Amino acid sequence: MKRHRKIKTVPPVNISEFQPMWHAWWLAMQPDWRQKDKASWPPSRALPSPNVDWGRLSRVGPNGFFLVMLTLAWWAETVGKSTTPRYAEFEVAIKDVHWVLSEMIEQLPAGQLSAKRPSPDSENDEEMAEKPRPKRCVLTHMA
After folding, report:
1. Alpha-helix residue ranges (DSSP H) falling in the chain
2. Using CB atoms within 10 A of its CB, is residue 79 exposed (0-12), middle (13-18) or buried (19+)?
3. Binning pLDDT at 50, 70 and 90, where does residue 122 land?
4. Which of 46, 49, 108, 121 has its CA 20 to 30 A from that of 85?
């Protein structure tokens, strides 16, 4: 993102270098309790308490979880769909990211996960209902 690369263009990825770098980067973003055994992959999924602070992972915007998804897309494009050990490692990473997202969403207080933003003017509800709305999920900042 620093060099303003086009998102649609997958950069050249040397998977033997990318995979360990991605693992280290993903671990660095995890809460301390998931980093205890840095040699273990995937990181621990044993929650220390029902309400965990996901810290750096709860960021939104161009430097937030979007980058995680973008790098997984690069990885997917590089390994392709196969049964090689490289694909198996990619699948483990996908499952771990899915688990983290599921836990983050489960911990959101009611009302913080919304399919759409409320209308600023309730009098225009009928007019707004006629216009197509973009389909997206809005996560408010967790902290």
Report:
1. 15-29, 65-79, 85-106, 125-130
2. buried
3. very low
4. 46
Q: Tell me which residue has tokens 């389909």.
A: 135
For residue 29, give Cα distances in angstroms to 39, 55, 70: 16, 8, 15
- Establish if 43 belongs to a structural domain: yes
112 DSSP assignment:
S
- In the chain, the number of structural domains is 1
For the record, the structure tokens of 129 come out as 């209902």
pLDDT digits (tens, 9 = 90+) for 1-45: 455 556 667 788 888 889 999 999 999 888 888 887 777 788 888
Are residues 72 and 94 in contact, defined by beta-carbon separation less than 8 angstroms? yes
For residue 118 the two structure tokens come to 């409320």
List the structure tokens of 119: 């209308």
Q: Which residue bears the tokens 């709860």? A: 58
- Residue 72 tokens, joined: 């997984």
Q: Which domain holds residue 37?
A: 15-111
In a domain, 139, yes or no: no
**Are the beta carbons of 44 and 37 closer than 8 angstroms?**
yes
